[in-house]
Specification:
This protein is α/β, with parallel strands linked by helices. Helices cover 47% and strands 15% of the residues. The chain has a 5-stranded parallel sheet, with helices on both faces. A hairpin with a 5-residue loop joins strand 5 and strand 6. The N and C termini lie close together (9 Å). Bound molecules: adenosine monophosphate. Adenosine monophosphate (AMP) binds next to helix 2 and helix 3.
């Protein structure tokens, strides 16, 4: 699908670390032909380029903590306003706090966010997935396990384990999600924009459910 009917769709993907937001955001972006903006990917790019923002964010990220709102909000809003606003966007990993959500609502032109899709996965499953997750050093695509080659199936880059996928950081990130990000579920529900999807189904089924929740037909 690549006609103009999806342009201007502003979608938020919500869910705990390991729920599959990155994978699903990539699939949805291709299907709907709108850009995918992942705050974690942007922060990792800053970190690997050694920018001031990357240096400031680094210690929070490796401990599994949230990077302070002022840094992340500025980074994302700059990116959203820089890109052609007519294209729409799938936001993955942002907002993660109530302040971020409120600032985003104030910054977007009406009608703002169209839909927030929350991918729900149990804590046991998250710990299992994150402990076995390897990420491409080049395109950041997530993989379960290293495979035989240790090479990214999408771009051929080298796979590695992110520092925040270490066991201590995993626990911290899940707790941070429960404390600081879960309140967004109620925030978007009260706006009538929330749709919750069972993230423990196959990747294809989850994608079908997300597309269905947006009111489109299947893959
Ligand atoms: P992710 O790739 O989405 O799991 O994000 C990796 C890390 O980047 C998180 O654990 C946070 O340290 C940081 N991060 C990403 N997005 C945000 C955000 N919206 N607010 C604060 N920190 C963030």
């Amino acid at each position: 699908m690549s006609d103009n009917q999806n342009q201007n769709l502003q979608i938020v993907l919500l869910g705990p670390p390991g729920a599959g937001k990155g994978t699903q955001a990539g699939l949805l972006a291709r299907h709907l032909d709108i850009p995918h903006l992942a705050s974690g990917d942007l922060l990792r790019e800053h970190r690997s380029m050694g920018t001031e923002l990357g240096t400031q964010a680094s210690s929070y990220m490796s401990k599994g903590l949230l990077v302070p709102d002022n840094l992340v909000i500025q980074m994302i809003l700059e990116r959203i306003t820089r890109q052609d606003s007519g294209l729409g966007v799938i936001l993955d990993g942002f907002p993660r706090t109530l302040d971020q959500a409120v600032t985003l609502d104030a910054a977007l032109p009406a009608p703002g966010i169209n839909k927030t899709l929350c991918i729900k996965v149990s804590e046991t499953e998250l710990i299992k997935r994150l402990g076995d997750r390897f990420t491409c050093k080049d395109c950041q695509a997530p993989h379960q396990g290293l495979g035989e080659s240790g090479i990214c199936g999408a771009c051929g880059g080298e796979l590695h384990q992110r520092d925040d996928d270490a066991p201590m950081a995993i626990q911290k990130r899940i707790q941070v999600y429960q404390d600081q990000t879960e309140p967004l579920i109620g925030y978007y529900e009260s706006q009538g924009k929330l749709c919750v999807i069972d993230g423990e189904q196959s990747v294809d089924t989850v994608t079908e459910c997300l597309i269905g929740a947006l009111g489109f037909s299947g893959i």
